[in-house]
Amino acid sequence: MVKQLHHVVTFAKLMLLLPVLIFIWGAIWLQAGEHTLGFAKPWIEDALNPEDAPYSISFKELTLDWHSMIEFGELRMSHVTFSKRDGTVFAQLPEINATIDPIGFLPYRTMLRKLILHSPHFFMTRGVDGTLQVGLEGATSPFALAELVAAFNSATPSDPDKPIRLPFRDFLIDHASIKFHDDKSQIDIKSEDVNLFLSRRHRRYQATLGMPFTYDGKEAVLSATLAPTASRTQYLLETSLSGISIPLLCTLGDCPEDINAEGTLDGTVRFALTKAGELDSIWLRIATANAVLKAPKWFAKPLALKASTAIAQYQPDTAHLDIVDMQLALADTTVSLKAAADKKEDGWYAALHGEASRLDVTHLGRYWPVMLAPDTRLWITSKLKSGHATGQVDIQLTPEVFETGVLPDAALSADVAARDVTVDYLPGFPHLEHVDGDIHFTGTTVNINGTSGSMLTGTQVSKAVLWCPELMNPKNPMEVTLIASMPAADLATLLAVEHFTFDDALGLDPATATGTFTSTMKLKFNSFSDTPSSNKNEVHFDSIDYDISAHAEGFSQKGLAGGYDVKALTGDLKVRKNNESFKGSLMLGDSGVNHVDLRHESGKALTLAVKGEAAPNAPAPNDFTLNYVNDAAMPKITVSGHRLNASVNYGGTSGGMLKDFPAMALDISLDEFLLAAGQPFTDVKGILRCSALRCESAHFTAQRGKAHAKADILHLNGVRKLFVIANDAGDFLEGLDITDRMSGGKLQLQGTYNDNQQPAPFNGRVFIEGFSLQNSQILGRILSIGSLTGLANALTGSGIAFEKLSANIHQLNGLVTLDKGRANGTAMGITVTGTVDTNT
Hints:
The structure is a single chain. By secondary structure, the protein is mainly beta. The chain has a 44-stranded mixed beta sheet that branches. A two-stranded antiparallel sheet has the order 10-11.
C-alpha cells in the first residue's frame, strides 16, 4: 500500500512539473526572437473583427516578439487590409503592431492590449459638395468620414443599448503623415508628424492628438484631447488651435463671399459629447494677435485687429448661442461685445450689446456701416475734425432683419459720449471747438445733444442739439437748436461769411464792435439740397425754417450802416421765417436813449416805433413810427409821429442822406423833422416816389422858422424837373445845415434831369432875392484884406444886404458845381464859382 502511494505521489509531481517545464521552455523559445504564430491567426482576426463592426480586418502573417510578462509579447501583423462591409478596400498597411492582454483570453475580455501604427500615411479629401473622405495608404475606396463616425456611434443590431466597442484597450498612431486636398478650392495641406493615442479604461475612452502642419508658408498646430467628465456621463473633446490661418478657415468653412480676413487664430474649442458620441454643447475661446478684416459692403476701410479674443458657447438641443465675451482691439479703439441668439421655428432671433472705448472721432467713418444712411454718414463724418468718443449699442435682430438687411427703428439703440470735438459744419464758417455732448441713435434716427463748446475768440455754446428723424432719408427736415453767448466781435466775424448777406449794409467791424449777444437758434432744414450742385456742402437758406431769439447787451460801434454812431444797443431780437421783432434801446450819436419797437409779420407791414427819453439840457427825443411794406415793384414806407431827429447822420462823411435813394414809395407826416441839431422843420408832409434808377416824383411842404418851404419833382413835356421854393432862405438853409449866416430872402431852385444818361445829371439855376449876410468869417477875412473896415463891421451887426443872388448849378454823382454865380447889393457885389463834393 505504501509502495502504491509512493508511485501516485511521484506521478503527481511529474504532472505538476511538466507545465512548469513547458512554460520555461516556451519563455526561452519566445526570448530567442520573433516567431511565427500561424495557429493564433484565427483568434487574432476574430478579436479584430467584432460583431456588427462597419469594417473587416485581415492580414497574411502573424509574428510574436516577447518583451515582458506584463505585455505578454508584441504581435506584428503584416500585409494588413481594411475593407468595408461591401468588400471594397478602405486601407492597406505593410504592418500593424499590437500587444496582447494577458487576461484577454478570458470571456468578455479584449484580447489586444495595444494596437500600434508606425508612420502610416493618411489622406483626406473634401469634395465640391463638402463631403469628407478618409483613407490610408493603398486604399482603393476611401471611407466617408460621416459614415464611419455614424457607424461607431450607432448601436449594434443585437443590443440597441450597447454601442460598438473597439477591439483593443490602447491605440497608438506614431509619426503619421496626413495629406488633405480640397476639390473646391484646390488647396493642399500636409502634416508630417501626427501622433494619436486612444485608450479605453473602465469602459471609457480617452484620446490625445497632435498635428502640426504648414499652410501658405506658415506653421500651425492642431491638438486635441478626449476624456470622460468627472461624472462619467459625458465626454469632453478639447481642441487647441495655434497659428491657424483665417483664410484657411474661411476656405474650409462657410464665410460670406463679401467678407475677407487675413491673419491667424489661436484658441481652444471644447465639445461636450454624450456616451454615444452625440454633440451636447460647444464652448470656444479664440484669439488673434494680428488680423485684418475686409468687408467693403459693411466698412469703408479694412479693420485691423490687435490682441482680440472671443468666448462663445452653443447648445444644439435648444439652438441657443451665447457670445459670452468678445474683445476687439482695433487700431484706435477697443470694442467689447456680448450676444445671445436663439433659433425658433421662423428663424434666428439675436440680441447684441457692444461697448467701444475712447475712439478718435475723425475715424468714425471706419466703423459706421456704409449701407446705413450713406448720405448722412458722409455728411456727419466729414464734419468731425478732432475729438474722441465712447459708446454702447444694443441691437435686436429678427428673421425679417436677417432676410432683408433693414434695421427697423426699435432694432437699434446706441449712445455715444463725445468729448473735446471740433466740428467744421460748413465751409467758410468758423469751427465749433471743444464740444462735449451725447448722441443717441436708433434704427432710423439720431439725436445729438451738445452740452458745451466754443467758437472764435469768446463764443461759448451751452447747448447744441441736432435731431434727425429719418437717417435713411436726409431730405427729411433735420432740426437744430443752438444756445450760445458771444461778444459782438465774434458776431461780426460770423456774419461776414458769404452765406449771410442781410447784414452787409450794416458794415459790422470785428475790430471796433463791442458788447455781447446771447442767442437761442432753432433751425429746421434739409441737410442736402434737391438741386445738384458742384458744392456738396451747399445749403439753401431760403428753405430753412428758423426760430431765432437773441438778447443784445451794450452793443456799440462807430460808423455803422454808413456812418451811424451806435451806442449801448440793448434789447431782444426774435426772428422767425414769417415774422421778426426787436424791442430795446440804443443811442445814435448824441441823440440820447431811443426806445425801439420793431415788428414785422410776413404779408404785413414792418412797423418801427422809436421813442426817446427826455434828458435835462438835451434835445427833444425821437418819437415816431415807421411802416414798411415790402412790395416787389416799389417798397412802401410811411413815417409819421411827433419827432424824427436825422441830424446824427445827415451830411456825414459818406454822403449820408444825400446819397441816391433806393426804390421806394415814401409818405411822411411829422410834427418835427431835424436835419440840423436844434433847427427842426415843422409840420412836415410829403411824398416821394423812386424807382431803382431815379426818383420820378416828389412833393414836400414844411415850415422852418419863418420859412414856408415846398419841393416838387414833376414831369413836364416829357422832362423831369425839380422845383424848390422857400419864402425865408435864411431859415430854410439853416434847417438844411448849409449855413446860419443868411437871413431873410426868397429862394427859388429849378432845373431839369437829363434822363437820357445814367446816372442822370442835373442842371438848374438858383435864385435868392432880398437877403443879408452876417457873421461870415470867410467873407469878413476877405473884406479885412481889402481894408473895407466898414463893411466888415457891418457883418457883425445887422449884416450886409444883397438884392439878388443867382447861379447855375450842376450835379452828378454827388459832385455839385456852381458857375456864373453873382450876388449884388447896394454896398458890394460878389461872383461865385466852384464845386462841393457832397460825398465827402
